[in-house]
Design a protein that fits this description.
Layout: H1 5-8, H2 11-26, E1 33-35, H3 37-54, H4 66-69, H5 77-83, H6 90-106, E2 116-118, E3 125-127, H7 128-141, H8 158-161, H9 166-172, H10 184-194, H11 205-211, E4 217-219, H12 220-231, E5 242-245, E6 249-252, H13 255-270, E7 274-276, H14 287-295, E8 299-301, E9 310-311, H15 316-340, H16 349-368, E10 377-378
Parallel strand pairs: 4-7, 9-10
Antiparallel strand pairs: 1-8, 2-3, 5-6
Helix pairs in contact: 2-15, 3-15, 3-16, 6-7, 6-13, 9-10, 12-13, 14-15, 14-16, 15-16
Length: about 375
């Protein structure tokens, strides 16, 4: 079996190992899950219903990325910031957008049900991913990540990141005793490590990716490769988001790195390049997509304890849940395209995630549990989910 780090960092490896877990479960060997085709159809229909409701014209479906959270409440917050940068060349604007996206994604682990963010200026309150996105954008806008907060706030510099403390994050995210945020230390530590990986700024990824672009085209896989190559030192484990399964062996996911890669597409395309082969990247194995599969009945827990106790990211049940999520999201995407009469080029997986599966997962969770938390609880350290 190929367990080289280079192989485990590829989307091909993610899909191959996920397929092995799927077969393991289909063969009835798992002690945690069994598959129900009717439940998978329920998940497809839930995703379709949300897609049609949110995007009557499927041609308008945007990418699933951090930029959607910056638009929470129907406000285009980046547009106001872009106005302050319009004197800069397109490439530098791309670097600054990537500065923001990288930092914001790294701050985007599960917030917990008790935390929310009240936006200055609008007075609107946002929670979970939207709240984390809006809060991080305001920190960026205020120069919290810049070496020159007053003179040139809209950038992220390694030397500033290396000095960040949990208190800085707590202040930016309005954390108080009655407004606790999960994984505060983990988030601050990730950003501090980001400041020590040898990139002068996160936006330097733009130059790395563009250096290998041919004919103005950038392969999505090349974005992920650059992210994994340059940012791997920030993860607590040398392998990153790769976990051991007792039968299948090492199972890679690189969820946060892929979410980041998806979030870098728009800055890159904003500089006049085209990102191609988006479907090489996989679906994101996090609790909204994974929760959809459990709540829709596609994945049926074999043990009650799965829904009752809390699990660590490396536990067998969680590794299986996430691998099954990767494999089944590909199947859901095929069904959704079929129903909408669209092909993978016009409706890549990254748009299926945005239009349907993520929101369908959230909706089912809200219907089934007070607070809308996931069906299975994972102890987040701020670096996995």
């Amino acid at each position: 079996m190929n367990d080289s780090l280079a192989y485990l960092r590829t989307p091909v490896a993610i899909r191959e190992r996920a397929a092995k877990v799927l077969k393991y479960v289909e063969d009835g060997q798992s002690q945690w899950f069994q598959l129900d085709p009717n439940g998978l159809e329920t998940a497809v229909q839930a995703a379709l219903a949300v897609t049609r409701e949110r995007f009557p014209d499927p041609a308008t479906i945007p990418f699933h990325s951090r930029w959607r959270h910056f638009e929470s409440g129907g406000r285009d917050r980046w547009k106001a910031l872009a106005e302050r940068l319009k004197h800069l060349p397109a490439e530098e604007i791309a670097r600054r957008r990537m500065d923001l996206a990288v930092v914001s994604v790294l701050l985007d682990a599960g917030a917990g049900a008790a935390w929310s963010y009240r936006e200055p200026g609008t007075g609107e309150t946002y929670a979970r991913s939207e709240g984390l996105g809006v809060a991080s954008l305001h920190m960026f806008a205020n120069g919290a990540f810049s070496r020159d907060a007053k003179g040139d706030p809209l950038r992220v510099d390694a030397e500033r990141l290396a000095q960040l403390t949990p208190v800085d994050i707590a202040m930016g995210f309005q954390v108080k005793a009655h407004n606790p945020l999960l994984g505060l230390e983990g988030r601050a530590e990730l950003l501090r490590r980001l400041g020590t990986v040898g990139l002068e700024r996160p936006g330097a990824l733009f130059d790395i990716v563009v250096a290998n672009a041919g004919g103005g085209e950038v392969k999505a896989e090349a974005i992920l490769a650059a992210v994994l190559d340059k940012l791997s030192p920030i993860w607590p484990s040398p392998r990153g988001d790769v976990w051991e399964h007792p039968v299948v062996g090492l199972v890679p996911f690189h969820k946060l790195s892929q979410w980041m890669s998806y979030s870098l597409v728009e800055p890159i395309e904003g500089a006049g390049l085209k990102v191609v082969a988006l479907d090489a990247l996989t679906g994101l194995p996090e609790y909204r997509n994974g929760g959809l599969l459990v709540d829709a009945g596609a994945l049926q827990p074999k043990q009650r304890v799965l829904l009752e106790k809390s699990f660590a990211p490396g536990d067998e049940a969680i590794v299986e849940w996430r691998a099954l999520t990767v494999a089944l999201l590909d199947q859901i995407a095929e069904h959704v395209r079929l129903q909408l009469r669209m092909d993978a080029e016009h409706l890549p997986l990254v748009k299926v995630l945005e239009a349907g599966t993520w929101f369908a997962g959230r909706r089912l969770a809200a219907e089934r549990r007070p607070g809308g938390g996931p069906p299975i609880t994972v102890e987040s350290d701020g670096t996995v989910f």
